[in-house]
Design brief:
121 residues; de novo design (two linked rop proteins); 0% strand
Length: 121
């Protein structure tokens, strides 16, 4: 599945970068970002195996986790724990993943208009 491959690529990149975080941030902010990445991968993986009508809820949770990762990466960049190039390369991958998640959710909303009215949430 392409989205899972992208998530794994983003996590591998992150895993490489967190090793160079300052010690005071590696186990706090870095640890939180790492845990969120794992939760995000887990949610997308689970959603890929669920029945069509059950996929939207975990996908929406995945979008929330992705947004939180982006926020915490921005904070780590502002704290200078992550340099510009690393921040940009991760951000580009995460933006692409976000578009893929959004497309997946829209696909289910087209198939079942009840998701738009809040019934399928």
């Amino acid at each position: 599945m392409p989205i899972i491959q992208r998530l794994i690529a983003a996590y591998k990149l992150w895993h490489e970068y967190v090793q160079h975080f300052p010690r005071h941030s590696r186990y706090t902010l870095g640890g939180k970002i790492d845990a969120l990445f794992i939760e995000l991968i887990e949610l997308v993986f689970i959603a890929s195996y669920l029945a069509r009508e059950q996929k939207v809820a975990p996908l929406r949770k995945a979008v929330s986790k992705l947004d939180l990762i982006k926020l915490l990466l921005q904070i780590s960049w502002e704290l200078r724990d992550l340099d510009n190039n690393k921040y940009i390369s991760l951000s580009e991958l995460l933006d692409e993943i976000g578009k893929m998640l959004g497309g997946w959710i829209r696909q289910f909303q087209k198939l079942n208009p009840a998701y738009n009215s809040g019934v399928g949430k």
